[in-house]
Write a structure and sequence with these properties.
The structure holds two protein chains of two kinds. By secondary structure, chain A is mainly α. Chain A is built from nine helices and four strands. Chain A has a domain of 129 residues. In chain A, 29% of the residues lie in helices and 4% in strands. In chain A, helix 7 packs antiparallel against helix 9. The chains are: A mainly alpha, B alpha+beta.
Chain lengths: 213, 156
């Protein structure tokens, strides 16, 4: 019987649900000019972007803290290796688990202190099954198009998408994932600035020849 | 002061809001049916219901319960008449018994959402509750038995 899962005991890296956008975050107070690496990319793209501005921050979306909830399958993953979440946790009808195995069963709205304790943030959960936002296996271009598509992104317009990426507390958890978990390496301010530069330049997507994961 | 309801009884506790709910239940309210297992939300022994949903009371701060309703194993029924309790007895499920209150609380939510669960449904719902005695086959039988009772109108 598979009630007992061996992996259980060391698990937690937490449902890492990094939401939806998992990854992006920007702060409107950031002046892009203060970020040399960002500035270089932005100026080269000027007003007409070829998708490079998206590519400049897509590594954040592909980070394990984000991919734990944006990978294939109707279940979250955990750890930097993306193994299936302990306890056979499922996406469920609303992205918050099933029956006695809901996200909020173990996860609070904040990280718990200590190794192997469940991480947490407000609205901990996966994207719902109607808009699962699965990025695993997609090219950069496909990810770009999917997050901009209102039919796939919970009907968000571009402003709402950028707000979600840069300010949502569940997304921002990726930079503060709690003890024992690798945070997103790109500084949040840099990420946020890049997202807003991308938006300002027209939010173009790269050609469909990018990397897949 | 943290105020909430436990098994339909209003309680006001003068405790640190960060105190785990489990501590409040056991130490302050004397409801010792809920057990401390791993302390890191991994074993399920401390499972109780908060506003009708399962939570691991060992990691949930008591402040999370403020203004809400908590149900513990003592509140599942006052006289062991809940179909799950009757089925548990009929199937002689417990061995050491330590995990069983958590198992029952999880099973209760399963039957609420899926009154006629398949084996797969049971596995999916109960995987978060570990039993070191390995009573899983009996747990599965008891859940099916309780589901049968409820289908026959023996539900509470």
């Amino acid at each position: 019987m598979k009630l007992l899962q061996a992996s259980f005991r060391y698990p937690v890296v937490g449902i890492t649900v990094v939401i939806f956008a998992a990854a992006m975050c920007v702060s409107s107070s950031i002046d892009p000019a203060e970020k040399p690496s960002t500035t270089a990319t932005a100026s080269s793209a000027s007003t007409k972007d070829d998708g490079a501005l998206f590519t400049a921050f897509v590594s954040v979306l592909r980070h394990p803290r984000c991919m734990s909830c944006h990978s294939r399958g109707d279940f979250p993953r955990q750890g930097d290796d993306g193994h299936p979440h302990a306890m056979n946790v499922r996406r469920g009808p609303e992205g918050h688990g099933v029956t006695a195995e809901k996200c909020s069963t173990c996860h609070q709205d904040h990280n718990l202190v200590g190794t192997h304790l469940p991480p947490g943030a407000p609205n901990w959960g996966l994207p719902p099954p109607t808009t699962p936002m699965i990025w695993q296996g997609l090219t950069d271009a496909q990810i770009c198009r999917s997050i901009k598509d209102p039919k796939q992104n919970k009907n968000r317009n571009l402003d709402q998408l950028v707000e979600h990426l840069t300010e949502d507390k569940l997304v921002m958890w990726g930079w503060n994932p709690g003890e024992g978990r690798t945070p997103i390496p790109m500084p949040h301010e840099e990420f946020a600035a890049k997202v807003k530069q991308w938006q300002a330049a027209g939010a173009s997507c790269p050609a469909d020849t990018g990397n897949k994961i | 002061m943290v105020s909430f309801s436990v098994n339909k009884r209003r309680v006001n506790l003068d405790v640190d809001p960060s105190t785990p709910l489990l501590w409040a239940l056991r130490e302050n309210l004397g409801l010792t049916g809920t057990k401390y297992g791993c302390g890191i939300a991994q074993c399920g022994a401390c499972t109780v219901h908060l506003n009708g949903e399962a939570i691991r009371s060992c990691v949930a701060p008591v402040s999370r319960a403020a203004g809400k309703e908590v149900t513990t194993i003592e509140g599942l029924s006052s006289d062991l008449s809940h179909p799950l309790q009757r089925a548990w007895i009929a199937e002689d499920v417990p061995q050491c018994g330590y995990c069983q209150s958590g198992q029952l609380m999880s099973a209760a939510l399963l039957l609420r959402e899926k009154p006629q669960p398949t084996d797969e449904d049971i596995d999916e719902a109960m995987t978060g509750n570990i039993c070191r005695c390995g009573t899983y086959p009996r747990i599965r039988k008891a859940i099916h038995r309780a589901a049968g009772m409820m289908a026959k109108g023996e539900a509470r």
